[in-house]
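Box 4.2: Ligand-aware structure prediction
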Amino acid sequence: MAVLIAAPDRDLSVLLARIGELAPELDIRSLEQLSETTDIDFAVVWKHPAGLLRQLPGLKAISSLGAGAEHLLTDPELPPDLPVGRLAGARLAADMAAWLVARVIGHWRRFDQLRVQQNERRWQPLTPQSPPVVGLLGLGVMGTRTFQAFRSLDIPVAGYSRTGRGPDDLDIHFGPDGLKTLVSRSDYLICLLPLTQHTRGILNAELFKHMKTGSVLINVGRGEQLVEPDLIDALKTGRPGEAILDVFSTEPLPADHPFWNHPQIHISPHCASITHPREAAELIVASYRRVQAGKPPLGLVDRTRGY
Ligand code: NDP
Ligand code: OXD
């Protein structure tokens, strides 16, 4: 029995070495060592090549190498009853929270203006405005850790989830009216939703109409959740006033895409939080041990719900 780890766009050397230290008895293969495939019973994949799953008839379970699993659920070759897991560890969530706190605080406290003043040798302390209200769309592993990070700084937070589930001490909205209420209160609206048939295109012209003038949209969920032409139009109205985007419908963002040099858009290349090789190694070993014991993999995804 063997585990395949397939992530063509990642350097897996640290991950594979760490698994070797943690569980030297495991037969771990990468895409480069794929001559024999019938004995692979667990695969951990990220942006796997088309056709890969067809070559793995012995799979008992599969896991995303990251938090999002939509890349697996949309593979037409995914066997219908195969349990699908994901790796959403504490480090991944903490890195996401840190990134979002940095983005919001840097914008609120006007770090870019301080740089301008430095360039002009101008000594002018900037008095902070009252703390902004942060609205979180999605209160799962990533959203909950992000809430805790903002809460620790006494920044007001409100949240939105499908069922109204989320941290006990958070003001949580749900349903279409709940979404409008949350959006209309937020100075920074952060999308941390998984990509599903219900969240595809959720950041659209209708939602932007409810945003505060001058507010900031931050998307770290998935690019397909944003209707990109709607955002370009909405920025002209000031609702939102700016957008901070880490994920895009097409990645890498094409060289001629209008987002690159839009003055109100700040982009990053899908790196708000990236699976940590050492944390992933521990989670993969733990997940495989569960599968070997006849249990579901870690972070079992509800395939009907889509996350
Ligand atoms: P979880 O599955 O733990 O949480 C999902 C959350 O979204 C839950 O609160 C769920 O609500 C809510 N939700 C799902 N569908 C809807 C809907 N239709 N309407 C309202 N709320 C909904 O996911 P994670 O927190 O672990 O990760 C979220 C996403 O973050 C990932 O899927 C990935 O796309 C993205 N991500 C991006 C990274 C980056 O670097 N840019 C890094 C890591 C993750 P409920 O609980 O009520 O069902
Ligand atoms: C993830 C990601 O889903 O990096 O883990 O986007």
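In the box above, the bound molecule is NDP. The two ends are 28 Å apart (CA to CA).
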